[in-house]
């Protein structure tokens, strides 16, 4: 009898849900299929394989609370807050085409690498056009956009949507979807300006996005879009851009592309237009063929060129402006095909000559320049010496660098002009009530070779992670302590030390780079040696064991090794005064004005007069790229701090950009690096919604209809909350000056308030309609009585 009882007990454990360690580096969901005295067999829910473990191997098998078939919509409602459960929930939802999941009000968006248009239709806009949808409908980016829009209108506060994640996470697409939603729910009063704001995205995407090994549509610049509202309608916008990747204009890695616009131009132009600009196919151009990747399977360059033309038309770019843009792009392609050869007339000098004069002629023609003027700038250096300019011939390497510098200057100047032109078109002409800002900035990057651009990009991501930590963890817990709440502190990964290592004065890496950039004889090697000397003992800094030109930094998202080759030149990014002079003298007024603006900036910083070549006064030197970027980043964080933030975390599902494929190891690494587990915990256990007693009483007084206007706001607050069922008791705490609530309680309060207000509105409508109908009835009755009286009078007279 005892044996039978034991056997039945073992069989009862068959089918039990467990987590098990398969050796892959992450836990896998499984079910027990067999159990003996010494062994337990588990079937993986990932691939159906059977894994066997010793019964006493308790570290590798633990109990699991099963999830619903489509996962959990909001992860703070999960009973199991383990790393495994969070990861598996995202996996289950992804398999069911549920790419969005909440952590309270924070949205986690996993990139499907495929555009499901039916998920973003007008029907979906109407479906989510409601602030109370978070718990009644599946998580969606439109719901987050709806909440942001409603908060701006109700709280009268500027909002900021911070979209972050690794390259390939879908940040650009998320930005476009939010903007599409805001445009769709915008009243029809300013439809033209709304359409122009929307069309700015595809235009800048063409000029600022490119294919990388991680992402077919990677943003190679950061943008911060502020959408301004007046009387609940969009009335204008402002766009700020950050750190365009200039090096991509002249070089890119294998299986990558230059900026989209070049390929779109060549695919979109017909034969006659190509002949007009002297163009042919992409593989013929050195600036386009280095990555051996001319086309993207998921992108039609010809179709996108038509979209670009449409955007320019809607944004009111003139025909002359459009033609100037195309001429500059074509000239850059011709510049890249200019080659040089050595001529050894003098044994002591490495002299060069142009091997492709046709390309020089095309460049000069397109840019409306003098042939000899451009040729001189490519082959000679101008040295200022009092009242005269001395010409020194370049060697081969210097000539190639000069060519590339001119190409980068042309493209980056054009890009800055485009941003300024868009801002001029969509600028605000009305008084502004509030704004919604959207930050779409380059994701964290770690390539086989990382340079100055990656250091700046990853520094920006460190700053955004700090901003996220500050709002979600630091400020949150500091306020709990200040308001004397019962709270057990949750630790989180603070990345302040990493930010200090990179940017803090006077010894941050970027500060050392700036110092070295001001010394004419400094080299990339001297910069590296100084970094090693200052930071060698820092736990976040890595010095290579071998004699390599690299250093490494332990970022929040992992270790990254940086190669210092070219750091100083990229940071200085100096454009020669004679080159600026040349383009300022172009017969094309639009191009000339672009560079005249640059000349004014240079003159203001350097005190340099271009016409005389003399220094007028001693002024500060032109800011370096890193200094300008650090200032822009600091201003950006300050601006966002003054707004009410909403966070969207974009997750890359795999490294090979395959649609509808989620690799658990790739997702888990991102969850760990961004502190997602701690985020779920603080959102579940914490009280992210807070009101002063006055605010709470004013907003929810309708839930206590018999209250006196003179009643203390704190008493009203406590009375309203005490009237809720006991299950809500743990969802709020009363502080010294504020009430703190969990999001689920706020949603319940909003729902109750909405029901009461709707019922009150219905009562008012019913009363007014009744009054109007009674008045109409009395009028009609009175009119009928008059008619009857007159008719009777007429009958009597007739008799």
Q: What does the secondary structure layout of this molecule look like, with pairings?
A:
Blueprint: H1 2-13, E1 17-21, E2 27-35, E3 39-44, E4 50-54, E5 61-63, H2 83-95, E6 100-103, E7 106-110, H3 122-127, H4 141-155, E8 159-165, H5 171-184, H6 191-208, E9 209-210, E10 218-219, E11 222-230, E12 233-242, H7 260-268, H8 271-277, H9 286-289, H10 301-314, H11 319-336, E13 340-343, E14 351-354, H12 357-367, H13 371-379, E15 380-385, E16 388-393, H14 396-425, E17 434-440, H15 452-482, H16 496-503, H17 509-517, H18 524-535, E18 541-542, E19 550-555, E20 558-563, H19 567-572, H20 577-584, H21 589-606, E21 608-609, E22 614-615, H22 625-641, E23 644-651, H23 664-673, H24 676-685, E24 689-692, H25 693-700, H26 713-722, E25 732-734, E26 738-741, H27 743-798
Parallel strand pairs: 7-23, 8-17, 8-23
Antiparallel strand pairs: 1-2, 1-5, 2-3, 3-4, 6-7, 9-10, 11-12, 11-17, 13-14, 15-16, 18-19, 19-20, 21-22, 24-26, 25-26
Helix pairs in contact: 2-23, 4-5, 5-6, 6-7, 6-10, 6-14, 7-10, 11-12, 11-14, 15-16, 15-22, 17-18, 20-21, 25-26
